Amino acid sequence: MAGSPRLAIVGATGAVGQEILKIITERNIKISDLILMADPSEAGKKIHFQGEEIIVRATTADAFNNSDIAFFAVSSEVSKEIMPLARENECLVIDNSQAFRMDENVPLIVPEVNPEDIKKHQGIIANPNCSTIIMAVAINPIHQAVGLKRVIVSTYQAVSGAGAAGLQELENSVAHFNNNKEFKPNIFQYPIAFNLIPQIDVFEDNGYSREEMKMVHETRKILHCPDLPIVATTVRVPVYRSHSEVINLDFEKEISVTEIRDLLTKAPGIVIQDDIQNSVYPMPLYTSNTDPVYVGRIRKDISSPNGIVLWAVADQIRKGAATNAVQIAEIVLNESLY
User: What is the pTM of this model?
Assistant: First the structure.
């Protein structure tokens, strides 16, 4: 398909939709037209983009008829509802929801890990869960070198993972705490101020949360390792932005910390911050509003002969959602896969 593509963003007024707009400009992606869509209640809003004022419209079939690629930054329920409109009009969808991630006919893509899977798309490409993306980028170079045997991950996830409402609830919770007032949470299960909540999403019958099982199933699919043992614990923390993860890895054979550091230094999308003598390591306060996955605290797992422990941090709105989606689109455009 010749010429610059026509892009659409469904959910353009939300945090991820707004970030996608910002990243399209930052990465200088040339487009011929841009259609912004959102819930009918937000139709008519105006969004400024590259010196122009674009009016947000309700999601309709004819909008997809005039689009080559559409970013979906909406809930799973909305994605499932409107996906047929896009597909009927031969518009390629890059979906940020969990609606199609585990569909065997839908590639689940982290561009630094499995870009070749994009070619298998049948009109839909899924963007993984934010925590999954961060971990996959960090562990894949080592996996390719020596082979993963087991993964144990614990996450410390920012409140913005729950959207703008999560950010507001943290502020409200802090204000109530400082004024000795009772606070009744609406977004989280308990007050998040000065607290940690070991539950993200609902619990499943096996005692693990849906967020934890996403990391298990999605990582296996992305790495093409359907039987890889993975266990996850996901925790909400009173941090505005950027998720952090402790990742314990067991390998088929021994590998040194020096070898790990060398592999990760050469890998795309990773920045090493690993100088414990000078207290240098990734932190969410300093990784927010950036795209790399930052890795530090690289050390041997003293409980396992072939084990390594990593600390990884990344902005879950950018690399964990919007940037990853735009990177997928760049590959689609560069290889004319739409």
Answer: 0.96
Name residues whose C-beta falls within 8 Å of residue 180's C-beta, 6 or more positions apart in sequence: none
* 293's tokens: 């996955």
Q: Label residue 237 left, alpha or beta by phi (over 0 means left) and psi (-120 to 50 means alpha).
A: beta
Integer Cα distance of 61 and 65 in angstroms: 7
Strand partners, 47: 54
The dihedral over CA atoms of 249, 255, 258, 260, expressed in degrees to the nearest 10, equals: -40
| In contact, 9 and 71? CB cutoff 8 Å | yes
Inter-CA distances, 288 with 217, 315, 319, Å: 27, 5, 10
The residues annotated with a catalytic role in the active site are 130, 243
DSSP state of 5: P
12-51 burial: b if 16+ Cβ within 10 Å, else e: bbbbbbbbbbebbeeeeeebeebbbbbeeebbeeebeeee
Q: Which two tokens stand for residue 105?
A: 């006919």
Q: What is the pLDDT of residue 4?
A: 86
**26, 39, 80, 96, 153 from 308: Cα distances, Å:** 35, 46, 40, 31, 12
State the pLDDT at residue 3. Answer: 63
The continuous run of DSSP H or E covering 132 comes out as helix 130-146
